[in-house]
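**User:**
Make up any protein.

**Assistant:**
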Amino acid sequence: MVSRFPTRPALLAVCCSASLMTHAAEPIQLDATDVNADAIMQSPGALPEEYAGGQVARGGQMGVLGNQDNMDVPFTMTSYTSKVIEDQQAEDIGDVLANDPSVRESFGFGNQSKIFVIRGLPLAGDDISFNGLYGILPRQIMSTDGVERVEVFKGPNAFLNGVSPTGTGLGGNVNLQPKRAGDLPTRRYTQDISSDGRIGEHLDIGQRFGEDNRFGARLNLSQREGETAVDDQDQRTKLFVAGLDYRGDGFRLSTDIGYQKQRVNHLRNSVRLGTAANATTKVPTAPDASHNYGQDWSYSESEDTFGMVRGEWDLNESWTAYLAGGARHTREHGTYGTPVLVGNSGRATIGGSDIVHGEDNTSFSAGLNGRIQTGPLSHQIALGASTMWAQQENAYKFYRSTAGNTTIYDNVKLPRPTDVSSTGGEMGDPGVTGKTRNRSIAVSDTVGVFDDRLLLTYGIRRQQLRVENYFYDGTFPNSPTNPSKDGSRSGAPYDESVTTPVYGIVFKATDSVSLYANRIEGLAQGPVAPSNVENAGQAFPPGRTKQLEAGIKLDMLSFGASLAAFRIEKPADGYVQGSQYLRDGEQVNKGLELSVYGEPIEGLRLMAGGTRMTSELKNTAGGSADGNHAIGVPTFQLNASVDWDVPGVPGLALNARMLRTGGQYVDQANTLSLPTWNRFDAGARYSLRVAEKDLTLRVNVENITDKNYWASANGGYLTQGDPRLVKFSGTIDF
């Protein structure tokens, strides 16, 4: 068991050393450099500026189109800044995305990985991009301590970003922007502690050097350790991220190197419905919010080393070229036990599995962005190419259910299972089980008329998806009696190419109002027929997810808003019918989406909105589910977050947040559903000067009422909402 109040000699020594070096260094002569902030923000590659209040930015990185202002593109994006991360004490990406009315969170199937449901469709952590590159970030839980912005693109995005590594993100994409050294030095240390004794430290140091502050360095070190708000569960997190950059005349270069290690002991996983023989005909009431119905022998540990380099060249005043490349090395292992419901009383069985996973990814992108004028027409040209190569190594042991039963309401301790039902690969030395190669090239033109009041965007991306699967070493998966040759290929390689177009229009009715519409597609690898059917090995073409969207955007300088109507058609997964494997049917999600953000009144900051959504299944197997709602798609989502500077008390701010999520179905037959749930959060912070240093004290309470609720039914698995958690922190700029 991890110590409830662990010590931190290593990191504290680093903090003290950094502080001493800072005070011992020569004074920084800030007046020696004439810095033009506007010029910096408007330079190519610079992040879009923030709305008043600093919580949300005016735009973000939109794939091959580069950094864009929301008012100029026919798409919807919300970009959350580091101010939100700091003020809300957001520890991982899920904490930040809780602010978005289009996003809800669930767990992966049987582990602790975060899954984000955007416009009713899942986005896996594997498919979150880092400064525009796929396959670079840690894949299960990503800390926010090295993140400058969390950018949420709404809708399919195969043209903008290319196909994602695992084919999720068909309802939206998330991109993380790394921290960079600013023109003013950063010397910041944060100490935090939660109500259950989990302690953390975060050191953030940044500085620019040289003539005109051309060179920059930003270092983030953090670790947290101790019990979580879930009973008897503890977590350890360590993060190191270093960002170096150079900004010269017409040339910019940056590199980011990171290391993250996460371990969670005594997992409370998602809950799976029983088989037909043990059918659940009613979803059981959610247990106590802090109750841990997992087993103390379960754990998950992941270790990731990652990095990337990006260069940009201004060829002239109108054209900029870029080149980026990155890599990631991942090692994961864990022992898992997912409760499987038996009947309606909450009784469950727990089997078990030992899983080892390794992954090595490399990713590259290159492109050219520019602007030309042909008579009265302006053209914003984007050319881009990308490639990603990934290799997966896996091994597993699956165990039969432990003798005896448990329930999701009682903490019944079961022995760790030992009766092996199937194995694959060598646990100590897993072999290669998969290789993926995605390549694409894209071109687009945004034509502007009437002094760019009307902008027409059109483009295409040609993509190749190549996937090779291999048998687990020594054993054919799920068939212990049919051993195979080590490393032998499982079927022919999946090799498909497809072209995805995009069309969009923006009409700027005024300087503050833009009307827009788009048609854009998402793309995922098509299924391959399994070995137990007549058409075994048949590879189905990649599935196209198509979106039609129209809306209006408002930019009132101090605050902004958007209203969108969308319709997304996603192909259904394959299924076995008789002796054939077929792929028919589709899922249609339709919705209205409203967002408001910024500081409409001085001292009052808002992030609010809602999504009203319906879903429908069509052309399902035998027509049995035609007209039904899709699994895990809430009927509505409402968010309201307020941050208020208390008048007459300089430095004091109060905040509150409400999350409300409508009902969602757990099964395709629509006989099981989750009720509407609410969550309320609140907090306060106080900034003051102590010994000539800026000090900020914060307290945030999540799930104030300690509400017991099922938060998500994504994939047919039940994910429970987190219990009440009180977080305290103090940040000093030294």
Remarks:
- Residues 1-42, 474-486 have pLDDT under 50 and may be disordered.
